[in-house]
Structure formats: C-alpha cells, structure tokens
Design goal:
The protein has helices spanning about 20-40, 45-50, 55-60, 65-75, 90-105, 110-120, 120-150, 160-165, 165-175, 180-200. It has about 200 residues and is an all-alpha fold. The longest helix is centred in the last third of the chain and has 29 residues, at about 120-150.
Length: about 200
C-alpha cells in the first residue's frame, strides 16, 4: 500500500465489495497497515475507508471516530494470555508465555502496536496492559515460583523487575520497527532469563 502525492490511498482495481466479518477484518488490517506506513497521526477515517474499499459512512455507522476504530481493532486482534500449564520445567513455561506476548506484536503488525499505545491515548495503553502485559507479568511470576519449588531458580530473583525483562525486550525490538521473530523468544529465554535465574552467587 503506497500513499499517493495527494495523500490518498487508491483502492485496488477490481476489488470486490465486502461485507460483515470480511469487511471488518479488511478494515482492521488496513488500520494497522496505515499506522505502520504513515503513522497514527496521519491516519484518518477517509484514508481507512479508501484503502479498505468501503466508505466513510460505513465506518461512521459503527465507530464514532478514529480513536474508537483503532481501539476496536486492537481489542479484536490482541491475544489473551492463557493460564500457564505446568510443563515441568522453567524453560518451556517461559517460552510458552513469551510466545503469546510475541504474537501480540505480530497480530498488530509490529510497530503499529506501539505507535497506537504511544499516540492514541490511555484507552489503548490500558487495553494492552489488561490483555497482554499484566497477565504476562503474572504468568511469568507463576512460572518462576514453580521453578523455585523445583530447585530451578533462585528465590530472591522472583521479583516484579525480573518478571518484566522478557516482555520489555520484546517491546524494545518492536519499537525499533520490526515484528519480533520466534527465534528472539528463544534467545531471550536461553541467553538472558535462564542464566539469570539459575545463576549462583
């Protein structure tokens, strides 16, 4: 998708008319594509409508403004952190939690997630915290406590700060403009978290 000199986004020739869930998915995908390409501030309802192959009237029938549309796109796309099953070892538990966090960036096309969280106001940040970051924090604390009981981790390192390391590293990579690959999750666990939690004085 490329913005023209006039600032308009042309609809692809031959694009078929979409309705219902199909149209909604196209609109949400367009929202994230546009945020990635031109930044949140330049996204307008008109641009979303043109790029998604619909009309502003269709958008305004469901969303009052850009902010509510973006929030709904996030709400639909962000995964929910599941309860972490005890897989019997710290490594597998950490990998499971951080992979769900990584998918949150992938599902919102990487940088879009952070652009929205930074620019669109408190509601978007609150939603991200509620759906992803706070549950991930709690899940990682749970995995570390289990590891202490199994003798896999030092109890004094089961802290809020350590629990946030993995998600913070994923966020920093996304802010730099890339969708974190699966290999990054493995590297964070194997090269940072496990050496730290298993280290001896």
């Amino acid at each position: 998708m490329t913005v023209t000199d006039s600032g308009r986004l042309p609809v692809a020739e031959g694009a078929k008319r979409r309705r219902g869930v199909e149209l909604q998915h196209a609109i949400f995908d367009t929202v994230f594509d546009l945020i990635n390409e031109i930044g949140y501030a330049r996204v307008t309802m008109e641009r979303v409508a043109v790029a998604a192959g619909t009309s502003k009237a269709v958008l305004y029938r469901r969303w009052d403004d850009k902010e509510s549309l973006v929030l709904d796109a996030l709400r639909e796309s962000l995964p929910t952190i599941p309860e972490v099953p005890d897989q019997g070892n710290l490594r597998d538990d950490l990998l499971a939690v951080l992979e769900v966090v990584r998918s949150a960036f992938a599902m919102t096309k990487g940088t879009a997630f952070h652009l929205v969280a930074a620019e669109a106001g408190g509601d978007c940040r609150a939603l991200a915290d509620e759906r992803v970051f706070a549950p991930a924090h709690d899940a990682i604390l749970t995995t570390m406590r289990r590891a202490v009981e199994r003798g896999e981790a030092r109890p004094e390192l089961v802290t809020d700060l350590v629990a946030d390391i993995g998600t913070a590293l994923l966020r920093s990579r996304a802010i730099d403009g890339e969708i974190p690959p699966e290999s990054l999750v493995t590297s964070i666990v194997d090269e940072v978290l496990l050496p730290l939690l298993r280290s001896t004085r």
